[in-house]
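DM from R.C. (forwarded with permission)

"hey, sorry to bug you on a friday — could you get me a structure for this? deadline for the figure draft is monday and I only need the backbone to look sensible"
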Amino acid sequence: MQMSEYKDLLYGQFAVIGKAVSSQKRLEILDLLCQSERSVEDLARETDASISSVSQHLQVLKAAKLVESRKEGLYVFYHIADETVGEFFRSLRSLAVSRFAELRETIRTALDDKDDLEQVSHQDLLARVRRKDVVVLDVRPEVEFQAGHIPEALSVPLNELESHLSVLPKDKEIVAYCRGPYCVLSLEAVGLLRKHGFQARRLEDGFPEWRAEGLPTKNSQDNHKKK
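My reply, with the result:
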């Protein structure tokens, strides 16, 4: 093989990945799949897009070997190919934040200005979970909680939180977490909790980062094995 042919093949394959992530909608889909496996219909609902449009985006991601699929009855479910895809997505996100000042300002305006308390670190939360002196809320959709969550966390999706306030204790601090450092679900959850007199803060990022650090996790299969 000529060196020019080798380079064309090499960079051509790199470009396949670049093309796959050149769409805002595909990045949104990839972010959701980093949380948990999803059906095409679920992804369409989550991203406010048509099923046909989401299917097309998924085919591009699949051709780039970023996602894989399986069929169950009439439904097709997609998931990331492996955890290296999650690492790639988080690295891409971090690179964008480090390079674009306007993006950092957008994040600061949307998140930091609305959260006036120090966020909880991984190690602090882990220690407090072990001491049982904190209530941990996973405010992501139930399907994401089932796919994986922080041990001892309670699944209370944000849209159900207000109806569960009466069963939450006010004598312990509540720490909410969601999909990552730029996800607003935990921020909104903390705002609602504080409004009703609870002590509440949010985790410094989200479950994917917690898992990537190798910290303890549980999922619905673990719970099933214990029964």
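R.C.: lifesaver. The mean pLDDT is 92.
me: no worries. The first helix runs from residue 3 to 20.
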